[in-house]
C-alpha cells in the first residue's frame, strides 16, 4: 500500500519536468509489482510447489534490495521537493510521496530483519525450544 501511494502521488504531478522523479517512480512501481507477485505466490501457497528455491533467502535478498533502493528513492524524492514551487499541489503531493517513501523504506527494512531471522532459523517457536534430547 505504501509503495502504491508513492507512485500514485508522484505520477499525479508534473514529474516529467524533473528527472529525479523517474528513479522514484521506477523503484516504487517495480517493488510494488514484485511485492504483489510474492503476495500472490504465498496466498496460493505456490512456494510449496517450488521447494527447490530457498524462499527465506530469496525474501531476505529481495527485502534488503528493496530497502537499499527505497533509501535512494526517499533521499532523491525528498531532495527534489521544492517548497517555492509555483504549483502548490505538486509540492504537497511530492512531500507526501517523500513521507510514504520513508515509511515504505522502514517497512522493507523491518521485513529484511524478520526475513534474516527466518533465514537463520532464529524464529523458533515454544514447541521446538522445549524439545531436548537427554538420552
TrEMBL record:
Location within or outside the cell: Apical cell membrane; Myelin membrane
Taxonomy, superkingdom: Eukaryota
GO terms of biological process kind: myelination
Limits of the MARVEL domain: 1-120
The keyword rRNA processing is annotated on this UniProt entry: no
Family membership noted in the UniProt record: Belongs to the MAL family.
Classification of source organism: Eukaryota, Metazoa, Chordata, Craniata, Vertebrata
Segments crossing the lipid bilayer: 20-44, 56-81, 96-116
GO molecular function: structural constituent of myelin sheath
Classification via InterPro entries: MAL (IPR013295), Marvel (IPR008253), MARVEL-CKLF_proteins (IPR050578)
Record's GO cellular component terms: apical plasma membrane; myelin sheath
Main location: membrane
Keyword Signal: no
Protein's UniProt name: Plasmolipin
Assembly information from the UniProt record: Forms oligomers.
Membrane topology: Multi-pass membrane protein
Amino acid at each position: 500500500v505504501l509503495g502504491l501511494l508513492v507512485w500514485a502521488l508522484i505520477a499525479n504531478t508534473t514529474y516529467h519536468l524533473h528527472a529525479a522523479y523517474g528513479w522514484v517512480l521506477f523503484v516504487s512501481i517495480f517493488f510494488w509489482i514484485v511485492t504483489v507477485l510474492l503476495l500472490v505466490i504465498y496466498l496460493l501457497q505456490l512456494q510449496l510447489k517450488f521447494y527447490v528455491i530457498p524462499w527465506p533467502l530469496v525474501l531476505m535478498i529481495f527485502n534488503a534490495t528493496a530497502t537499499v533502493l527505497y533509501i535512494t528513492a526517499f533521499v532523491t524524492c525528498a531532495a527534489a521537493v521544492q517548497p517555492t514551487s509555483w504549483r502548490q499541489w505538486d509540492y504537497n503531493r511530492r512531500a507526501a510521496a517523500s513521507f510514504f517513501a520513508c515509511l515504505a523504506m522502514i517497512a522493507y527494512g523491518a521485513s529484511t530483519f524478520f526475513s534474516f531471522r527466518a533465514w537463520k532459523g532464529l524464529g523458533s517457536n515454544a514447541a521446538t525450544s522445549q524439545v531436548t534430547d537427554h538420552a
